[in-house]
Structure formats: structure tokens, C-alpha cells
Amino acid sequence: MEHLDYLESESISIFREAFAKFENLGMLWSIGKDSNVMLWLARKAFFGKVPFPALHVDTSYKIPEMIEFRNRVAKEWDLNLIINQNKDALIKGMNFKKGRITCCNALKTQPLKDLIEKYKFDGIFAGIRGDEEGTRAKERIFSPRGNTGEWDVHDQPPEFWGQFNTDFPKGTHVRIHPLLSWTELDIWRYIKRESIPVVNLYFSKNNLRYRSLGCAPCTAPIKSYAKTVDEIIEELQHTNISERSGRAQDKEAEDAFEQLRKNGYM
Amino acid sequence: MKKNYMDSNIRIQLDTKPPLRIVIVGHVDHGKSSLVGRLLNDTCSLPEGKVEQIKKACEKRGMPFEWAFVMDALKTERDQGITIDVSQIHFKTLIRDYVLLDAPGHKEFIKNMVTGAASADAAILVVDAKKGVQEQTKRHGYLLNVLGVKQVVVVVNKMDLIDFNQKIFDKVTKDVINYLDSIKVNTDNLKVIPISAKDGININKISEKISWYNQQSTLEALDQFEDRKLKDDLPLRFIVQDIYKFDERRIIAGKVLAGQIKIGDEVLFSPSNKTSRIKTIEIWNKDNINNIGAGYSVGLTLSEQIFVKRGDIVSDIEDSPILTNTFRANIFWLGKNELKVGCKYKLKIHTAEYQIEIEKIEKVLDVESLESAKKNFLGKNDIGEVIIRSRSLMAIDPNERFVIQEEYSIVGGGLVKADDSIIPAKTIKSQNLKKVDHNISLQDREKINNHKSGILWLTGLSSAGKSTLAIALEKLLFEKGMQTYVLDGDNLRHGLCSDLGFSGEDRKENIRRVGEVAHLFADAGFIVIASFISPYKIDREIVRNINADKFHEVYIKADLEACIRRDVKGLYKKARSGEIENFTGISAPYETPSSSDLIIDTGKLSIEQSIELLLEYVKKNFIL
Q: In terms of pTM, does the model score above 0.80?
């Protein structure tokens, strides 16, 4: 069995477990390559349908091509798209200059918490991967969040033998990570194999391309000539630079990312 | 950009193989995390800037460069210098790709170590050369064995602290091998490597520094591990996750755990014991799939529409899982609350869930001495052997893995032991029988009668009041126009069971026959009131499992003294004088029910009150 088949089968199995055990599911969609792969896997798991809403937390600072892509794909794939923004914070002028952790908390974490509160989601799919970053590497596939959405990283439940934490007290929710075992290379190879659409920002223009897509002010493009999926795969096999090295919020403090995640970030 | 470790041509070939998952275990502070950091550095697998990042973090804390920080990504882990949760990172050698799982070594975090080790294909057990084998060395070694991680390499670390002394290394090696031998791990080909993670000795290649050692380095030993085995040639096991009806197809969604499925195959569903044929294999956006092998998540449609539910397991008709209520298991306990006899939990095996009770704790293992600890409970991090009993029939395989859940948390895990403690609940002697279906359904009968059918199984000591209550209830229900009949122990022993005595075997057969008859009556639409001492739990369970939906166990409770006082039939007097042998309560046991559907304490309630309770129960559970 090819490795991509194994990963695909595991992810499909995770989607189906969640669907069987949770009442009210939602899927975070950041419009990036990983959450696109996640959406694709959901379609595979449910034979073409996506039987839960796709949630976009819109910070308003995303690059415009992403929004256009979002609207087009949502229509093509018949998605139930729910968009949320922290309008209060934006009116008051929230931006990265107020401190990146502060801004992420206000424009990403808070609207996510609001969505969960409003729709009473008991399970949220997020497309994070274990190889992206140290604290994500410590996550569980089904990861409980407390009443206020917090991640208690020091007391995570055990998870083994394909048995997941699908029972939990009312009022809390569980983050479900179907892509936890996937690497950046796996994602691109799968995109190639399945011909999954991704935003064109990943491909080189003027010798620059985005390896990771965050908000415009906090994401730096990299120098690259890779114009196609094949070329990206070739490039990745020769690099030692980490994927998120262009993401400013990770660098703000030694435990910046850990703090964000404990508070309920993706 | 740094040149990577491999030539891109070779790599593309290997990219299709799954990476080998290696977990690193061992006692706290023996150097696991440092080993990992070193391994990654020596295979040029660290992302650019990582070494800088670590240097900064160490300077900030005023400490020398610490390789362990590569994996210890949580601030607390770095502050306290201790791994709390398992971490994963990828690296590669010329032979293949790897995923490295760094597990915590502290006793507090066993559950996190288990999470990491349970998905590993191989393990590195790290032992401190100076401190030698310690508690977690043994516990981790034992757990690796229980978790089924068969490929292990041992590294004796911090050789620099003992001046690379061969004698000390040999002693530590001997201690490790002795321990592993004693827990029945095969140590014939076990490699033990002297290393220093801090100084990078014997990590990626052999160093001159340890002149007396000339076998393989750590990385070379990893490259010698075998790849994960395919399960295509094993007997078919397909687990049902859910049933979907998004369009006109009724799709059974699940995963092939082992074996293969072909269109047209006739398959068996357990524990319902029904068969059907595979009509199609469904995968989104793929047509004409004729067969599928182990590991794939697919959908199935069947030729005959039978009732299938989540938790069912599909197999070939020959070579199917065993159906049973009880089995013996090796378990490891992770929960904060103790596991004791009588405790009730949820058992999860693949997608099936069962309500279980701990029937017996046979052994509690002291990981250090490997002797049985003298305690009758399992505490956090303990390992033991127990007997598990389920209310309903379970479909299981020997050596199958399961977890135990208490409320919302997974509190333990284990393996079904492959021995004769698994008593199959159903064996049909003739293979040539085909069941005949009536033209009248049970629903038709229940509709006409205006009530559901079922069995009220009254169990309890002699003179507890079973027969009295059964006869009284029958009359009341009959007067209400219900179809009802009493099956009484004494009556049946005059006819159907007149060839049976009161030995354990005969009682078992008596109850079996009565149970089957009671279910036939229930099938015919009756409310059967069965009145039998039925002293053995397992026999009552066997009757329940003929059709659990129809079976209601009513415990007629009265203490022995009260029964002896009543001695309605004069039997206790005869039993005590020895005139009657094998008499329940006096010379034969009565196993008190622990999970009856209704309990009537005739010591405390009058006959009228008891009948009231029974009528209430019937009203609640049988009236349409």
C-alpha cells in the first residue's frame, strides 16, 4: 500500500468516526493548501458531499486572490460556507502593529470562539499538521478543548490504537485534526495525485511564491522559481528551511505559538 | 540551501513507502531527547535556523547547548528540562524515511508514552551507562512488549561519563537482557550499542573512541529494522463505522483491517451472525472496483439488505471472530481511579462498544520484581491480568487490542489473551441447516396482542418468592388481556428436563433448554414469566444472548436466613441434613446478579408491593 493511500485512508477514517460520534461538526477552512486537501478528503469520506459547514475566519487582511478562490470553490463544491469576522476589533483598528499575538488572538481566535458559541459546535476539524511546528507535533488527533476553548497541553488524554476521545462533557468541544500525520511533502504529492485546486499564490510569480499563506502583513513570500506542483515538490525535496519560517507571529516570543494555541488558536 | 542527505532520484522511489515509526523510550534523564536531537543533526534533518534557535534558548537560560531542545518544544519542558508529551519529527537515511517519536520518561507521563509507543513500528530503549537499568527502563520495556512493538534496539548512553569502560557496559547489557528475557521478549538478535548522544559517538557511524566496539552504529541499527508488514494475507476483518444514505445507495462505510474483499464474496456479520453478499465496493470518484485489500477505507453495498450497524465486524463465513461474554486480558491502567472487581466501564474494540464489568483480577504485576503484587486493584500505571465480562455478546479475536473508557476518558488498554478463557457462546452443530422464515412477523403478532413480547426472567434463591410472584403476575396480565405464560423450574423438571439432575453441568443444560423455550414463546408474541433459581451468571447470560432485546432479568432478592425461615417446600431442612446434595445456598453457590433490569427485595416488600413493581415494569417496557 502506497504511503499516500495509507494517509488518505487514515484521514477518511477520522472523518467518518467524527461524523458517527459528534452531533454538530464544523470544518475550519483557511483557503490554504492544507485545508483544501482536508476538504477534498471530506468529500472522499462522504461520497461527494460535505455534510457540515466550512468555516472561514476572515481577518480581512488576507490576500484578495484567496477570497476569490474561496468563493469560487465554495460554489463548485456546493459547500455550506460560514464566514465570521471580529468586526468590533476591526472597527477599533486592530492590526499586527498592536502586537502579533494580540492581533491573532483578536482576529482569529476570538471569532472562532464566537462561531463555536453561536452554532454550538461540538467538534471542529482543523487542518494542522504535526510537522509544521513543535507544539502542533504534540497534539492529539481528537483533542478536547475546555469550556472556554482552551488547550490543556499538560494533561492530554491518551490516544492510541485508533481509539479516539469522542465522548466529552456538554459545553466543551473537541478539535479534530485529520492531517496530523501528513507532512508538507505528502500534501503536495497528494495535490498532484488528485489534481486538487489550490490558490495560485503558491506558484512563483516574479521569482517569488508563498510557501505558507497567512495574513498579508505577517506572511513573507520566498524566493523561488517553482511554477507548477511538480516543481514545488522538487524544490521541497531539496530544502532545509522550515515551512513556517516566513510567518511572523511564530517569532514574537519563544513560546509565542504555544501561548496562542493554549488560548484556543488552530 | 544546504545539500540534503540524499540523491533525488533514489528519494522519489522511496517516497511511496510509508516511513518507519520509531519511538524512543527509557527512564527519565537517561538522554532520550538528547539522542533525538543528535540523530536529527547528524542526518542533516534539522530545519535551517533550528540550531540557532536552540542556542538562543539555552543562552537565555544560562545553560550549555542542549540537544534535547529540538524536541522539547513546550516552554515548561525546556524550563524544567523534562519531556512531558510525545513529539514527532521526520528524518531520513539512505535506506528509508523515518518518523521519530520522543516519549517522556517520567512515571507521571506514562499515558503520553503509551500514546507514542502504540503507533510505533520499532523502538530505541535508552539506558544511562552510569545509572543502569531503572524503574521506567523496565516499565517501558514491558509496555513495548504489551503494545506489540517487537523490533527494539538498546543504546547505553552517556558512555563518556564512565570513561567508555567496557566492563560497566557489559554489566548494563546483561541487566537489560536478563530483564527482557524474564518478560518473555526474544533477545536472540537484540543489539545493544554503547553511545554518547552529547558527544555524537556511535550515533551515525562507529567512532574510534570506543575501540572495543565494532558492530553497528545507532543509525545503522535502525536501517536494519524490517518494514511494516502487509495484512492482505490474513483472514478478512472489515469494521463498520457507519451506514450512509446520501443518495439511493445504502453504503456501509468502514475499513478493511486485514484480508481482502471481492465483489460477490459471501460474508458474515458479527455479532449478529447474519450473512450477505458483497454487491459493490464504493470509493468516491472511482468506478468498477473489483476488490480491495487491507488498510483501505471504503464503502460496501450488499446484495441482501440485512440490518447492519456501527460496531459490526465483517469476515469470511469460515474464520470469523469468536462470540463471547467473557475473556481474559493483559491490561495496563492509566486512570486516576483504581480498577477493582465489580467496576463497570465501557470497552472499545475497533468501532464496537460494550458495557463491561471487571469480574476478576487475577494478577497485578510489580514491574520491578515481576512478581505478583499483593493487591487486589490496579492503580495508575499498573499492569495486570483480569477477566472481563460483558452484558451483551462481543465479537473478538485473540490478541486483539482494546481500550477501556470511564466516563469521558480512556483509562486503560489491553490485549485479549489467546487462551481457553474465551468461551464461545454459540456453536451450531449442524452446518446444513437453513433457517425457515415465518410469513407472520413478530411485529404482526405484537400489534394484534397490543403489547410487546419478552421474557421476565425471575432469578433468586429457593423460597425467595419467584414462583409466588410469577403465578400472581401471570393471572393479572391475563386478566388485562395479555398473552402470557409461566415457565417454572419445578414444572419443567417434570417434563422437558426430567432427564437432568442438579450438578453444575445439568443445571447449565437445564437453563439452556429453558432459555431456548422461553425465547420461542417470546417469538410467538408471549410475555413469558420464567421462574428459575438459575444460580450461575454465565448461564443467565447465555439465555440473555439468544436475543438480548427480549430478555429482562428480575432479581428476586431475599437473604439466605429469610429463605431458610420460609422454607416453603421444606427443602432447606433436607439440604442441611444432607438428604439433598448440591442445594443452592447450602451446598451449591448462587451468583448474585450485578446488573439486573429489576430488583425486588422480598425481604423488605410485601407480595402486593412486589407485584406492583412488576406491573409497573411491564407497563413501562411492554405496552405498545
A: no
